[in-house]
DNA sequence: ATAATTGCTCAAGTTAAGTTGAGGTCAAGA
DNA sequence: TCTTGACCTCAACTTAACTTGAGCAATTAT
C-alpha cells in the first residue's frame, strides 16, 4: 500500500486525486503562485493537506469568474500556505457575492434592452440601445479591443445605413 | 473630399469608421466568413452598406455571448451578403433571449448556493454545494478542462481534509 | 507628377489557462 | 536488484479573437 513518507504530506498525484485537478494544472498553479509546495530530498513536490482546501478554493473562485491572477491576489493575503479559514471565507465570499451580483445586473440590463428592441428590428447604430448595452467592463476579454479607450468616440455619429431590402 | 468610386460601396476604412471596428478586425471577420466583400480592379475590398448592419449585428451578438463561429452560423442562414432584416431579427433575438436567460439562471443558482454557504465556511470537497455549483456547461472555456468528461468521477469521494488551523 | 494615405498579404505575437511531449530521475514493490 | 509507475523540467502547442509588423501596391490629394 502506498503511504507518503511523512504523514500529512501529499505527492502531486495525491493532490490531483483529491482535488480532481490534473497534475499539470497543479504544477501550473504553483507557477502562478497559488500553492507553494516544499521539495523532498529527491526534488519531488510535497504538499500539505491544507493545499487541498486551497486548490478547492481556487476552483470555486474560478466558478465565480475570477481569473487566476485575481485568485492569486486573494490567496496572497493569507499567511503562507495556509488554507482559507472560516473568517477568510466570510470576507472573501462577500466579494464573490458582489462580483456575482454585478454580473447578474449587467445581464439583466442587457435583457431589458433586448426586450425593448425585439420588436423594432432596427439594429441601427445611431438609435439601437443594444449598441451601448454592454458597459465598458463587459467589453474586456471578448470582442474587439480598442487599445486606447474601450469605445471609439465616433459611435453614434452615423447618419444613415440603408441599403438592405426589407423583404419580410 | 473623399468619395467612394461607386456610391454605396465602402472601403474597409470607411466601414471601420462606421462600425467602430478596426480595419484588422474587419479583415479577420472576412476570414471567418462574417462578411464577403468584393474586390475592385486594384484588388481592394469593397463593402456594401448593408455590411454595416451585418457587422453591427456581430457586435451585438458578441455582447450576448455568442462566439464568432456561432455568429457565422447565424449569418450563413441569410441570403448572401444580406444584412439581417426585421424578420431575421425577430427570430434571432428570441435565441439571444433564451441564451441570456440561461446564463442569468445559472448565475442565480450559483448565487443561491453561495448564500447557503456563506455562513459555513466549510469549502469541503465532500459536502460543500459550491463544488457542484457550475453545471457542465459553465465549465467550458474556463477553469481546468478534462478532455474526456467534464468532471472526473471521483469528486465527492474524499474522506477528510483537515490540516488547517481554524485560528479565527 | 508626386507625396501622403490607405490598402494588401502573410507571418508572427498576444492572453488565459492549461495540455502534451521529450528526455531523464525517483520511489516503491516484487 | 530491478522494473514499473510516478515525478521532474522545459519547450512547444491549443483556442479565441484579434493585433502588429514587414514589405509592397493602389488611391488620393496637392
Description:
The structure is a homodimer of 168-residue chains. Chain A has 168 residues and is mainly α. Chain A is built from six helices and three strands. Chain A has helices at 12-19, 23-31, 50-63, 68-76, 86-118, 136-139, and strands spanning 9-10, 38-39, 45-48. In chain A, strands 1-3-2 form a three-stranded antiparallel β-sheet. Chain A is elongated. Chain A binds a DNA duplex (30 and 30 nucleotides) through residues 2, 5, 11-13, 22-25, 27-29, 32, 40, 42-45, 62, 67-69, 141-145, 147.
Brief summary of the model shown:
With 168 residues, the first copy, chain A, is mainly alpha-helical. Chain A has helices spanning 12-19, 23-31, 50-63, 68-76, 86-118, 136-139; strands spanning 9-10, 38-39, 45-48.
Amino acid at each position: 500500500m502506498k503511504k507518503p513518507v511523512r504523514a500529512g504530506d501529499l505527492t502531486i498525484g495525491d493532490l490531483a486525486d483529491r482535488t480532481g485537478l490534473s497534475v499539470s494544472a497543479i504544477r501550473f498553479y504553483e507557477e502562478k503562485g497559488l500553492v507553494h509546495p516544499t521539495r523532498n530530498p529527491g526534488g519531488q513536490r510535497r504538499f500539505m493537506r491544507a493545499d487541498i482546501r486551497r486548490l478547492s478554493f481556487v476552483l470555486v473562485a474560478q466558478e465565480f469568474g475570477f481569473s487566476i491572477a485575481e485568485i492569486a491576489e486573494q490567496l496572497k493575503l493569507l499567511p503562507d500556505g495556509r488554507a482559507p479559514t472560516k473568517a477568510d471565507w466570510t470576507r472573501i465570499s462577500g466579494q464573490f457575492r458582489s462580483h456575482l451580483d454585478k454580473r447578474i445586473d449587467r445581464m439583466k440590463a442587457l435583457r431589458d434592452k433586448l426586450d425593448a428592441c425585439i420588436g423594432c428590428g432596427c439594429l441601427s447604430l445611431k438609435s439601437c440601445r443594444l449598441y451601448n448595452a454592454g458597459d465598458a467592463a463587459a467589453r474586456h476579454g471578448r470582442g474587439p479591443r480598442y487599445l486606447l479607450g474601450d469605445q471609439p468616440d465616433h459611435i453614434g455619429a452615423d447618419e444613415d445605413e440603408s441599403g438592405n431590402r426589407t423583404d419580410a
